[in-house]
User: Fold these one by one.
Assistant:
Number 1:
Amino acid sequence: MKTLFINACVREESRTLQLCREYMKRHWEKETVTEVSLKDSLLTPVNEEMLRQRDADISVGDFSSSRYDWAKDFADADEILIGAPFWDCSFPSMLKVYLEHVCVNGITFGYGSDGAPMALCKAKKLIYITTAGGYLASPNSLELYLKELCAMFGIGEMEMHKAEGLDIWGNDVDAILKEAMENL
């Protein structure tokens, strides 16, 4: 089984990262996990020149460039875990940039000869883990966005785990994290 962990945690002592490590320890064999640490990668937002090159590559079906490695790894994973703290009603921008690089027509999704969309990812499940200083609305735009991506990629199940209220004065942070870990 190929498992992919997309680590969008900026801080080494990240509470989100703690939850992700616990999830992986409970559910995955360590040797099957490929970790993509976004804070250590050279992410560049997709720009016009990159789109031109991508369109040219798509038109001839040439995905041999290393710029498609993230998309190939994502498409080939059997299960995907994304860990990202809840920032400004969403997630860190580096995760959005990563997802822009993963959304490649011909690798993670495509279109049939009749123009109908086709999902090309192998994963059956995407797990999203986050922590928040306050509380997330329900439903929230973050969860809706991830569900739409999963539908486009053909990932049938999206599971979200969260620890909320971690920065609220008087809340027992250790108890909140413990409960979140138990629910993994």
Number 2:
Amino acid sequence: MTGGSVDGARLDHLVVAARTLDEGRAWLEGRLGVTMQPGGEHPQFGTHNALLSLGEGAYLEVIAVNPAAPAPPRPRWFGLDTPEMQQRLAAGPALIHWVAAVPDLPPAPDVLELSRGDFRWKLTVPADGSLPAGGVQPSQIVWETPPPVTRLPDSGIRLLHLRLGTPQPDALRELLTRLNFAGEVEVYEAPQPELSAQLQTERGPVLL
């Protein structure tokens, strides 16, 4: 994966969702042959996560609703509250989204100031909590502290390729061009939004 320029966007992290954090961790650890690292809680959205370095400033996140947290005052991010997502995750954890790091995010209704522990960041989150373009359009993030990947041990896992299928491929390509995105991303036409990531592991390539 190539890195973004100082004035452009780059991959920050991939988002895998699961019904429970334990289920998501076990699924990824079984497929990738490595141990996920502890993440933490997101008090604004009632979720928690675990993390895995992908090298080159990127990481993988598995996220789930935190049953011990109070319900948030707004819909949870990544569509986690929707019946569609809950039905999807009933079949097992899934890669649902990706996040691009950008140089700046001007104030806007969908730009939120968020935190987890001593991490601070800005992120685009639709008011209804939906996945942008069904998950293929990246959320945009600006880290105000060093990002989590700076504290993660190198897992040896690397992203080889990210594929994004959408009924509107030209619109997605135009967005990535406007963001000056640098990375190994393939955009193609598909009847419904879909995304997949090929990861290199010690066992060989693994497709999520």
Number 3:
Amino acid sequence: MADPRPEKRAAAGTESERTTGAGFRDGANEAMVEASADGIIAVDERGIIRLANPAAEMLFARSTGDLVGSAFGAPTVVNQTSEIDLIRPDGSARVVEMRVTATTWHGEHIYVAALRDVTRRKQAEQDLEAALERQTTVVAVAAHELRTPVAAIKLLVHLLRDRRSRLSEEQTVEIIDEIVVRIDRLQALMHKLLTASRIDAEDIRAAPEPVRVLETLLERLAEFEEKAQDVSLSCDPELVAVVDRYELSEMLTNYLENAFAYGRPPVEVRAIEQSGRVEIRVCDRGPGVPDSFAPHLFERFSHAPRADQQAGGTGLGLWIVRSLAQAAGGDAWYEPNDDGGACFCLRLPGTPNP
């Protein structure tokens, strides 16, 4: 569809056209058009606008005097409803539903186009389609990721049930420990899927508060038990970020999980104040990230082409970090580690020491 924005003719129509346009606006026709909630454009057989109501002025962002006498620019097919992309003088775009009828006025054939702005409706439809597509993808990922651990847990439970009399105490403990590990992975997966659902629902905005970064880092490291021994931590005890405490914990947990799953020790966590912002870096000495994949790291469900299959993962962790960081007024990104490996960075609003 060509740009329907009318191009005003040099003389704005001939004298006859201007007189006809004025005559058409008299009486009952004018009253009906002026009262319409839709934009109404009357076009003659040459495609010249003869009348435009106030709603059309608002839709086109042009005055009636500017519209009348200019070319309409869109095809007028009678008894047909179509959608056109309307580009306004300021460059903004609107999606317009156009219905065309025809009438005769003083023996002259006139096309009447009723124009309705459906931009919001189209955007809502696109948002719904995107949401449904995301839900379908989440269900597919959940089904795939749940299948293997659930099958493994089932196998281990059957092993305990069927061979408990022949298993030593040590073997029994090993099987139970393996079941616990796999259940923990399932819980972590469900947590990420629920967090992703909250983000999609835009239900991630809590009241930010001053949070001591070191305290939150120590709380998160405690959850990793013996893995925390491979972490070198650098953070001023008085460093404060203005963020939701739960969301900060979520971001740090995902960064640490990523370092332990795909990197190699030692892992260095460094948090500093920089220009009134809090910057946190989680760096490891692993193989790093391929240059070709680095731009896709923070995309939803992204996996490196040669990602360690033993590490597992849903491809949601880094996407969750960036989504939460940006919602908090910050950002998240990746940098290669100068000493080899990967650095995952986080920037959040800061505040003076409490």
Number 4:
Amino acid sequence: MRDAEPTAEAWTGPATLAEFLAGIEGRAFRFAEVALRQRDDALDAVQDAMMKMLAYRDRTPTEWQPLFWSILRNRIIDVQRRGLFRLRWLVPGSSDAEGEAIDWADEANPDPSRSHDGQEAWARIRQALRGLPVRQREAFTLRVLEDLDVAQTAQAMGCSEGSVKTHLSRAREALQKQLEEFR
């Protein structure tokens, strides 16, 4: 049974599914890229997940986020199972399959030194996330980076809330150790 639709005063998120998808696209790509390690596969997975979300436009806006992450996660697993998963690591300063430079910088930020620092920081975080087991990486990304609550994360991952808490705790511990080595 779905929750009652929130009042206009309580809901501050996107009003339409199109707005929701536009707002989540970049984060979804980064999530898929870390999991699939290949730009084209990540783009395809995100596009497929967004297309599947169109079937759920009648759901309440509060349901969209955990539903989208669940769809995207399942699509990533499908790509991996079908053998489309290629073991290519993107490293800072590398290029994608077409030879185009990958730009992780904030386009609105014209300061080159800050852009460089941001690229280096994202590269360290991306490398540390890749070092985590899949379930820990998913729990961390959804809870910390996407700010889903425990129940929404459990729904998206298809596991219990206790499992989310365990995976998140282990992920935080492992990431802390890995990121301290970079200092």
